[in-house]
Write a structure and sequence with these properties.
Blueprint (H helix, E strand, L loop, with lengths): L2 H7 L9 H6 L6 H14 L6 H12 L17 E3 L3 E4 L2 E4 L4 E2 L2 E9 L2 E11 L2 E9 L5 E8 L2 E9 L5 E8 L2 E2 L1 E6 L5 E8 L2 E5 L2
Parallel strand pairs: 1-5
Antiparallel strand pairs: 2-3, 3-4, 5-6, 6-7, 7-8, 8-9, 9-10, 10-11, 10-12, 12-13, 13-14
Helix pairs in contact: 3-4
Length: 206
């Protein structure tokens, strides 16, 4: 598109700021000019019904083009296998199909009224427990949840009563109890409260 002819038709004076853009030969190089003059242009030719088309053209020419990399940075899907596809060897868990230390989630199932239900779900990285290990009651409610890091208990751990109330809340550091350990009855009342330091009782509160 010849911008000089367009501006002359629209009776927009040349202030010297758009001439270099015409010499460039590409409308995309005129992005900032388009944004400056689109309002003036639309007012000038509104009676012809072309204002919407001109405005859309100028803004479309400045929009970034999709290079096909819209999925860049998206997290890769987690691979999920069954315990029957996992084999222990030298302290690591291997995927039987690839013979490599497994990274992903391992689900252990049991049959409930003829359909498979997850009993235990474990996250692994390079053949070691890493992330959440979750165990469920037969009705699907959580029973135990423990955080792992590089094969060791590390972080918060919970047990639940069958009614859904927390039974035990503990903290681990490198496989050792470290921090508060609180036990509750089925009504949510605290029955035991102990503070640990790397596996040893530091203070018994209750």
């Amino acid at each position: 598109m010849d911008l000089l002819l367009l501006f002359k038709y629209l009776n927009i004076p040349n202030r010297g700021f758009y001439t270099p853009l015409v010499l460039g030969g590409r409308l995309q190089k005129a992005c900032f000019v388009g944004h400056l003059c689109v309002g003036c242009a639309c007012m000038k030719i509104a009676s012809t019904g072309l204002a919407v088309g001109l405005g859309a053209l100028l803004f479309w020419s400045c929009a970034p083009q999709d290079s096909g990399s819209s999925g860049e940075g998206a997290e890769a899907p987690v691979e999920v296998i069954s315990t029957k596809d996992l084999a222990p060897h030298d302290g690591l868990f291997y995927n039987k199909k690839t013979n490599k230390p497994f990274t992903g989630r391992v689900d252990e199932f049991f049959l409930m009224q003829g359909s498979p239900k997850v009993r235990v779900s474990r996250h692994m990285q390079e053949g070691r427990l890493h992330g959440l290990r979750t165990q469920y009651f037969n009705d699907g409610k959580k029973f135990i949840e423990i955080q792992y890091e590089d094969g060791l208990k590390h972080g918060r751990a919970f047990n639940w009563h069958r009614n859904g109330e927390v039974q035990w809340e503990r903290h681990f550091k490198k496989d050792q109890l470290d921090g508060e350990s609180i036990r509750y009855d089925a009504d949510g009342n605290i029955t035991q409260h102990v503070i640990y330091k790397m596996g040893r009782v530091e203070k018994a509160i209750k």
